[in-house]
Amino acid sequence: MRFQDAFILLGVLCVGAQFAIAAERKATPAVVNPALRSPLRETISLDGTWDFATDPEGAGEDEQWFLPGKDLPGKVFVRVPGCWEAQGVGGPGNSVSSGGERNINPLRGCYVGTAWYRKEVPIPHDWAGKQVWLKVGGVNAQGWFWVNGAYVAHVGTYCGTYKYNITDLVRPGEKAVVAIKVRNDVAGGKGLFGWVHRFGGLYRSVELDATAEVLIDYAYVEGDFDERKARVCVKLRSLSPDDGAGAHCEVGALITTLRGKKVAVGTGESYVMGSQTKDVEIELALEPLVPWSPANPHLYKAEISLKLNGKKIDGWVERFGVRKWEVRGRRFYLNGKRFFVRGYGDDYIYPLTLCSPASREAHKKNLQIAKDFGFVYVRHHTHCELPEFFDAADEVGIMVQPELPYWGTGSSASDGSPVRPKGDLAELVTHYRRHVSLATYCFGNEGHMGSPIDKELYQLAKELDPTRLVIHQDGGRGNNAENSDYWTIPHQLDDSRPMIIHEYTNLGTDEDPRLAEKYTGAIMPPCPLEPFKKELEDTGLSLEWGYACIDAGNGLQRIYQKRSLERARMDPNVDGYSFWTILDCGRPSAQGLLNQFWEPKASTAESFRQFNGPIVLLAKFTPRRRILAEGDELKIEWWISHFADIKIKNKTLAWKVIDTNKRFIFGNKTLQSGEIPGVTVARGDVKAIGAATFKVPPLKKAIKAELSVEFVGTNAGNSWDLWLFPKIEPKAGAGEGLCASQKVHTALAGRYPGMTKLGSPEAADAGIILTDSLNGGALKALEDGKNVILLKLKGINPGVKLGWWWKCPQVGTAVARHRAFGGFPHDGYLGEQFFRLTQSTVRMNKGGYNNVDHLMLGYGYDRRAECSGGKGNMGYLLYVFQARVGKGKILASGLNLLSPHPESAYLLNEFIRYVKSKHFKPKGLFDVSKSAVK
User: Fold this and answer.
1) 2's torsion region: left (phi>0), alpha (psi -120 to 50) or beta?
2) Residues 679, 684, 685, CA angle at the centre, nearest 5°?
3) Residue 98 sits in the same domain as residue 177
4) Residue in 189, 186, 185, 188 with CA at minimum distance from that of residue 110
5) FRET pair for 342, CA 20 to 30 Å: which of 181, 351, 730, 903?
6) 553 is a domain residue
7) What is the pLDDT of residue 402?
8) Residue 491 included in any domain
């Protein structure tokens, strides 16, 4: 199905089937703010300052604010493009969202209702005898347009850009008044655009065009990878009188590289009668053909001209690329090569502008960051981005999946918009097929449009544009072989189609109040600094501890992101993922790889690309945890996930383990290394490629080591942390001066010969008591001025896993750089070496912990309590602390230090060493009578 059929389908939308308003002018597709313009087409941009007034009573139309000479009452000035909220209209307040999901935020401008825009535009003298068009880039939620007091059109589209002929309403050499009524209190039909707020305004450019009576009404270029050619598709329109006469039109097409090198040239002809349209197609061979791909986003330029009687009267310029995106069996192929979808989710996050900026450069900057982190595909959750976004994606090399704005079917969408999937799909195809980055059509999120509409939509998409893939729903159980080209797991697991993991690796952490000063636009700081500081002060904590917990959450998030993506890349049945999400969405958690300003939180682009690139080296470890004692062996099975353009034939795989703590002039100390020569891998292989064994050498102290692997002579490499501990062997006299409660003595007596039991006569001479509770004996020892190591706390075990979307008991745990931990290797937060240690805590807001010395502290959140109507915030959780108690001193820990794990034994030994030392001088005070540790 080509131009004609698509335009017929669009007619349902374009002529105002949504709202019955008389005298609507015909809407035809247009391109506003194109990447390239033809010098043969005259355009006036209406960007800039407009008169503006709110109309909360809805009086403007009755009072005819649209008439020339009628000034807007109480007018101010706003900028176009942009939404009025970003310019403070309505003053501060919370957002009013729409759609199936909501993200309430404080806004600088929160006006919801009707408002008016008005601008005087000089019409050039030399536009006399020409056709004048009003082109509307985008309005939200809906707009009504007047020119010189005459009603023109209602605009309430999903994603399209339309033009309206206003020749009879303007006079060359005079000013024209363009007036627009905009409402953001009605349904917009744009899906996730409104999940933060029903923003209002002209969010893209408004333009005026001047053309001849015969013009290029619309055009796009479609590349054909198999035939190595381009198809230039042009729709001609004649506005000449329908008097039986016609015009013989010659259409020329010149294809060059973006640098101007000529590639192909051709012409087409058509005879267009008055008040008619005609389609002209020109097929041109592309020699040489340079396909578009994320690795090489090559674009061509097509200069299209229209000649009448041998004279050029109109022109159009298109950028385009050539690529083939397909499914073969159960695999993805791009340009005939196996392809792995390294995708991310985009939830329409724009804290400064609220609406997506109509700026190619802004989107290009963001998309390049995404690509630097290894991503090549973006899914737009139930919305379609602006053409400027697609322009940028074309340039950067990011494949795009826009979606219809539905979570299912019914009489209306979640924001009250009519459900019109066929019309929306036709609009999407018509307006966005020109972008080579558009990869996949999707009809919604986690729902089902019903039958037979699901099959009909699939068939319609294939008829309108067979060059793209189709997925009925991203996520959910509604996809089948009759409505989708591939599956989105985990809901579908058969091997008949390719599979992309839906909304993968969403890990909830806390928002960062240090970013508050960056929220200078539409959205005010979602996490202001003052309440954050107040909670810390009330809990007896410093600002540094609060920041450390946030950084700890980001560090833990980084660990799980690496684990998750490596697990996906090692599964031969997985063909891609949609990482969820690249940016913090804000409430209910900060779950993104980057913050809302596209800044890294914990991972660098270089480190993240190691496991999110086209080629990834992987490892299966035995034992699974990379925590070892001297003499232990770590068996490594090397794997590869290869989807790069480089050839891997007879390559050498080299690996080594270095001590990251010992740095010499020429680098770190290498503990062991090895090579596997002659490795050959085909593109698309996900398989084991060799094995190695690392044996932990004798150690005097614990170290953090790094295991790294690379293909020699390539950029392919990866690395993992190892934690290596000396064995804590029983030594004669090691327990002298120590006594322990019954449970602790049973666990540790063999490790510390000479340790006595608490309460025994021999215990009187002990200077340090190890106990699992502050019972009478331990309290007596503190009263007597002795030192106590408490090895169990009475609160919850928050675990080590972060929540999905919502925050959970583990949001992030910081570890002090303190002598108490001795030589235990850590990076200041709860990392994998602590996973088996995490056990019990106490809540800082329940008991006398404000004045103790805090050594290991996290933040917790109770999602179940929030869902049942209570407060979800558990507050700060204390894992390890020290303090003075009367004449004595205490080091208290909820960590699992009685197990035989090497990290447990080593850290307990460090605690004992510290308490024995002259450095054990707690400054804080602990009131046991107020605590929950007894």
Assistant:
1) beta
2) 40
3) yes
4) 185
5) 351
6) yes
7) 98
8) yes
